[in-house]
Amino acid sequence: MKEIAITGANAITYPHLEIWNWAISIYLFLGGMVAGLMVLGAISQFRPSSTTDAGRPFVCYLAPVLSPILLSIGMFFIFLDLSRKLNAFWFYLNFNIMSPMSWGAWGVGLIIPLSTLWALASIPEEHRHYLRWPKLHDFSFKISAYRNKLAGVNLALGIFLGIYTGVLLSGYVARPLWNSAVLPLFFLNSGLVSGSAMIILIARNYQEKLYFTKLNIWLTTAEIVLVLLFYYSHLTSTAPHREALIPFFTAVLFAGIIFPIALELPVITARRPAPLRVHLIAVLILLGNLAIRVAFVYVGQLSSLSDIARR
Amino acid sequence: MPRYAMVIDQRRCIGCMACVVACKRENNVPEEHYRTRVVEIVEGTFPKVRMELRPELCNHCKNAPCVYNCPTGASYKKEDGIVLVNKKRCVGCKACIAACPYDARFIDPRNGAAHKCTFCEHRIKEGKEPACVTTCLSRARIFGDLDDPQSIVSKICAEKHLRILIAEAGTKPSVYYLSLQPLT
């Protein structure tokens, strides 16, 4: 039997009470989803059918428009979490090459304007009249010639964004649950899953919805493989890594992935599944991914190296 | 340039918590927060029981994860080995708190900046020892310059087998432990 008493215990001794809260979970979820939208939107832009406005799928318009909006909302949540908000400008007066958060701050600072440019370039001719300011209208027309180049840049930035959120957490040796080289890839893949689910919800064309539902199943299959690798790397690592995989986390992780895919699989075999069913599955996938991010943030903080070392 | 370190002789610690109180008083540490703590680990079943008293604080690591994870450069390491926080630069992002394997940092609720042990830097400048060292009635905490061969800390480091906390984190701490049983 072991009894531990700590005199002078901070909230930090129980770090889940102190470090990051739900706001960071939402940022990680939105950041991942935007990464997915950027990557899938850019790939759709490169397809041969996308050379003309008429042939381009809806995702080519809406993914670029949604990306800077959703990322800005995510950034707002990050801002909410800062305990010295007025000092936020220091992120951009310093670059620490060893700090993933510094990379992230500069990266997101670059992604928001470049994805906004991509959004302006992607607006089709018939919808350009929604831009009220004549100068913005003209600018949108001018940069539409660079649509493919901007899609290429945003594809690279989308991959960076998806990976960086995982690198941010995986770099912390002090938190064994996060400390895995598989996490950046898992987060990138999870972002692609969220992005494709979002596209299923917003796509106008029924065939487009089905196409992304099928893509989503493949991405979720890859997610299951990555989860198994994540578990394998933790189970073969040190005792704190093994202990970090608490049953609650496992339940959330599998419920967030297995439950939606179990509902999604019959959609492939159905001749013409009801749109409501396709939408419902997409919503479940998004909720599952949100639950995974929340579980990662909270359970990761519970898995303190010093706390486990005391036991 | 000195290289400051602390040796904690666990054989001498009686768990009086005077160090915890002295630190709070000296550094005006906010309510319900502490820069140092004493962990009591009681193991076994009566009559075969043993107790470990382990004072813990910022380890002022040579390879400090809090410093290289800080996105704004607010956490920095002085040449004498002391890790400090520049409050003017701190944005309260909590990256350093997440990065510290010793859970030695917290957010000061009064100003939102990261807060931690400074080895009582202001006292060292005056030629004094940290408050926890001065107040320790059993002399369980020993502070000094590792580069000075005449300092007690140097002599202990040369003569005794010292241990560090969470060695597997690879942080190369400046706080050493002298104990009878191996530390976990």
Question: Can you give a write-up of this model?
Answer:
The complex is a heterodimer of chains A (311) and B (184). By secondary structure, chain A is mainly alpha-helical. Chain A is built from 11 helices and 1 strand; from the N terminus they run βααααααααααα. Chain A has helices at residues 22-46, 59-81, 100-122, 134-143, 147-170, 183-202, 206-235, 239-244, 247-269, 275-302, 305-310, and one strand at 2-7. The longest helix of chain A is centred in the C-terminal third of the chain and has 30 residues, at 206-235. Chain A is globular. Chain A starts with a strand and ends with a helix. Chain B has a single domain, classed as Alpha-Beta Plaits. Chain B has helices at 18-27, 65-69, 95-99, 121-125, 131-135, 152-159; strands spanning 4-9, 37-45, 48-56, 75-77, 83-85, 106-107, 114-115, 141-145, 175-178. The longest helix of chain B is centred in the N-terminal third of the chain and has 10 residues, at 18-27. The model of chain B has no long low-confidence stretch (mean pLDDT 92). Chains A and B meet through β1, α3 and α11 of A and β2, α2, α3 and β6 of B. β1 (2-7) of chain A pairs antiparallel with β2 of chain B.
Give the helices and strands, then pairings:
The complex is a heterodimer of chains A (311) and B (184).
Chain A (H helix, E strand, L loop, with lengths): L1 E6 L14 H25 L12 H23 L18 H23 L11 H10 L3 H24 L12 H20 L3 H30 L3 H6 L2 H23 L5 H28 L2 H6 L1
Chain B lengths: L3 E6 L8 H10 L9 E9 L2 E9 L8 H5 L5 E3 L5 E3 L9 H5 L6 E2 L6 E2 L5 H5 L5 H5 L5 E5 L6 H8 L15 E4 L6
Parallel strand pairs in B: 1-9
Antiparallel strand pairs in B: 1-8, 2-3, 4-5, 6-7
- Most extensive chain contact? A-B, 50 and 53 residues
Helix content of chain A: over 70%
- Give the topology string of chain B: H per helix, E per strand: EHEEHEEHEEHHEHE
CATH domain topology of chain A:
Formate dehydrogenase/DMSO reductase fold
CATH topology annotation of chain B: Alpha-Beta Plaits
Largest sheet of chain A: none
CATH class of chain B: Alpha Beta
CATH 2nd-level architecture of chain B: 2-Layer Sandwich
Assembly annotation: heterodimer
**Helix-residue proportion of chain B:** 10-25%
Strand content of chain A: under 5%
| Count of folded domains of chain A | 1
Q: Report the total helices of chain B.
A: 6
Quick one: how many beta strands of chain A?
A: 1
